[in-house]
Amino acid sequence: REEIFASSFAAAAYLQSIDFPKDKKVYVIGEEGILKELELAGFQYLGGPTDGDKKIELKPGFYMEHDKDVGAVVVGFDRYFNYYKVQYGTLCIRENPGCLFIATNRDAVTHLTDAQEWAGGGSMVGAVLGSTKQEPLVVGKPSTFMMDYLAKKFGITTSQICMVGDRLDTDVLFGQNGGCKTLLVLSGVTSEQMLQSPDNKIQPDFYTNQISDFLTLKTAAV
Amino acid sequence: MAAAAAAVPAAKLEDAEALIDSVETFIFDCDGVIWKGDKLIDGVPETLDLLRSKGKRLVFVTNNSTKSRKQYGKKFETLGLSVNEEEIFASSFAAAAYLQSIDFPKDKKVYVIGEEGILKELELAGFQYLGGPTDGDKKIELKPGFYMEHDKDVGAVVVGFDRYFNYYKVQYGTLCIRENPGCLFIATNRDAVTHLTDAQEWAGGGSMVGAVLGSTKQEPLVVGKPSTFMMDYLAKKFGITTSQICMVGDRLDTDVLFGQNGGCKTLLVLSGILIIPFTLNSSASSAEFASALTLAGCLLQV
């Protein structure tokens, strides 16, 4: 379990790293994972999946309240995403002095089912960016927060690491930003054609079909 | 290397008569200029009457796409203002007008992430559409093997303010833009906040657009302010040049920029953020028009 670093964990770890006050609250636009990690880290939170049922009645004179103690809004993938959450997060960021805007990731698409791609955390983050005009602090890939965290935790330098992933703009970029070796596998979203396309600006150190190639690839003996 | 020139500071309006005489058309933003939520701002009817009595053309441009121009006509009427539907240009109308201007094929469909206003304008223009408020009740069940279908005939996704916004709509729009060849991504506006009630600001069309931008990494074509599409459209329609126009608004990054991008005069009013407790008497002269605006400026400086 200690070998796993999800961006939900990264959000809680980030708040710990900046000594986010325990008397402040976190508003979550996201799912269970974030809530669980915040709870484990001892932070108070509001929002999450249950706000998915809340609606706005825009009657004249209607006023939407928000908790003035919210000191951070954490945004990640949220299948229960709706206007109420966007507005609540927007009010916190715009009106609570010093309120942080943290994104677990900005992935455009994500593999929620094996059949097709799904709009990812990047769309929830994009919505809040659109209403606040504030850039978020990204704790997931390609930001190096998680790599710096685990390098420190395991007492290693990033040059001793190889990052293996299937996405150029999150995984490989993460590795490059962190200063470690990078290996692209073609078993996911990126094809050889995409890698070699003139539009692609991100080149990993190596690429191969899938990680089991580690078992079989060997330079032929001279 | 020469330093970039700083923007010329705005001049407080002193001689309203000169400004009025120098232009043929006044374009008014609505929220924060004519009304705030559902309340008329003081002195507006008299001001509009004064301008009409001087033979000025009045046009009303709003980024709010929740209503069609016909529905806005009713709102003006309810507030006691006599405004013709033909004088109103909402961004809902702009979306339909844009599709007409590019001869968007009638056998293609439009997926709408937005409200009634957009649907009504598309219908009036003869375009087929999907989506809108009713998709607000749709949910995703992410079971293994579940596959979300989308209509391959969608040739444009139009995004505007949507209080019924949800993940289903984001995903549907995303599939259309990513998978239907040549599918357009059109935004009625990218306003960060909007005045839906007079009590506070609300996350605006910019957030719905931001969501779809986030999942497609494609920049939208914006038809509302500050894009000049609506100004070019009405200049052509009325046969005037933009130098004959004065744009009046309460927001720098939509209204004033719209005017500047279009090459017309610009007047900022401060009534968008401050309720001005003054009234013009019924025989308001230009001088009082000027002093009313100047009074607003003085109140803000106190």
UniProtKB/TrEMBL annotation, chain A:
Keywords: Hydrolase. It catalyses: 2-phosphoglycolate + H2O = glycolate + phosphate. The keyword Transcription regulation does not apply. GO terms for cellular component: cytoplasm. SUPFAM superfamilies: HAD-like. Its EC number is 3.1.3.18. The keyword Hydrolase applies. One of its GO terms (molecular function) is phosphoglycolate phosphatase activity. Belongs to the HAD-like hydrolase superfamily. CbbY/CbbZ/Gph/YieH family. PANTHER family: 4-NITROPHENYLPHOSPHATASE-RELATED, HALOACID DEHALOGENASE-LIKE HYDROLASE DOMAIN-CONTAINING PROTEIN 2. NCBIfam families: HAD-SF-IIA, PGP_euk. This is phosphoglycolate phosphatase.
Automatic annotation (TrEMBL), chain B:
It catalyses: 2-phosphoglycolate + H2O = glycolate + phosphate. The active site is at D29, D31. Its cofactor is Mg(2+). The keyword Lipid biosynthesis does not apply. It is an enzyme of class 3 (hydrolase). Keywords: Acetylation, Chloroplast, Hydrolase, Magnesium, Metal-binding, Phosphoprotein, Photorespiration, Plastid, Transit peptide. Its main location: plastid. Its EC number is 3.1.3.18. Divalent metal ions. Mg(2+) is the most effective. Substrate binds at K225. GO terms for biological process: photorespiration. One of its GO terms (cellular component) is chloroplast. Gene3D superfamilies: HAD superfamily/HAD-like (3.40.50.1000). InterPro entries: HAD-like_sf, HAD-SF_hydro_IIA, HAD_sf, PGP_euk. It holds the Pfam family Hydrolase_6. It is found in: Plastid, Chloroplast. The keyword Plastid applies. Mg(2+) binds at D29, D31, D250. GO terms for molecular function: metal ion binding; phosphoglycolate phosphatase activity. Photorespiratory enzyme that dephosphorylates the 2-phosphoglycolate produced by the RuBisCO oxygenation reaction. Belongs to the HAD-like hydrolase superfamily. CbbY/CbbZ/Gph/YieH family. This is Phosphoglycolate phosphatase. It comes from Aegilops tauschii subsp. strangulata (Goatgrass).
